[in-house]
Amino acid sequence: MSRQRRSPTSEEIRLWREVMRDAAPLRRGAPLPPPPAPVAAAPAVPPAPPLVPAPAARPVPAAPLVHPPLVFGARAGLDRRTDDRLRRGQLVIDGRLDLHGMTQAEAHGALNAFVARAHREGRRTLLVITGKGSGGGVHMGTDREKGILRVAVPRWLGEAPLRPLVLAIRQAQPQHGGGGALYVLLKRQRP
């Protein structure tokens, strides 16, 4: 679909010349076309009726800021160099949280508190150890053995109240726990 350029109307040309009459040209150019003949004034518009003040309206609450979904391993919002350093485990880890042996409820609460505190303190790169789970072995009273935390933690990081604080998540390198740990990159605090 192409748009055709339209030519300015004589009124638009007149207004342009009036606005530009005191301007000095920066360089020589083609002379302007002669001014168009004066246009008859438009008929007067009757004045609008006086406005009746509206009753005091309640302030409309601002819509909550919607954050894009947090996709495990996606680079959204990161420059390539930072993403590569995070993926390779080359960023300085500012805090660690080990969720081994916790139930889902305990782990969820601990994760929320840990990430919120780290963000308040201006920390940027976190290591969250979820454990790999045993893949269906004997259930010993925790969710760790089933690998549930390994799946739940990325989901929790992408939900309120943590999503506004988290910029990216990546699987940790083997020296930091590999598939049983995550790097969490927090957004910078705004002054």
Main features:
Smr_dom_sf, Ribosomal Protein S8, Chain: A, domain 1, alpha+beta, 4 helices, 191 residues, hydrolase, four-stranded mixed sheet, endonuclease
Give the structure's gist in a few sentences.
This protein is an alpha+beta fold and 191 residues long. It contains 4 helices and 4 strands. Keywords: Endonuclease, Hydrolase, Nuclease.
Assess the beta-strand content as a share of residues: 5-15%
The tally of beta strands, per DSSP, is 4
CATH topology of the domain at 82-123 and 144-190, anyone?
A: Ribosomal Protein S8, Chain: A, domain 1
The string of secondary-structure elements, in order, is: HHEHEHEE
> Major beta sheet, specifics?
4 strands, mixed
Please tell me the CATH architecture of the domain at 82-123 and 144-190 by its name: 2-Layer Sandwich
Strand order of the largest sheet: 1-2-4-3
Shape: elongated
Q: What is the alpha-carbon Rg in Å? A: 31 Å
Helix content: 10-25%
Number of H/I helices:
4
- CATH class descriptor of the domain at 82-123 and 144-190: Alpha Beta
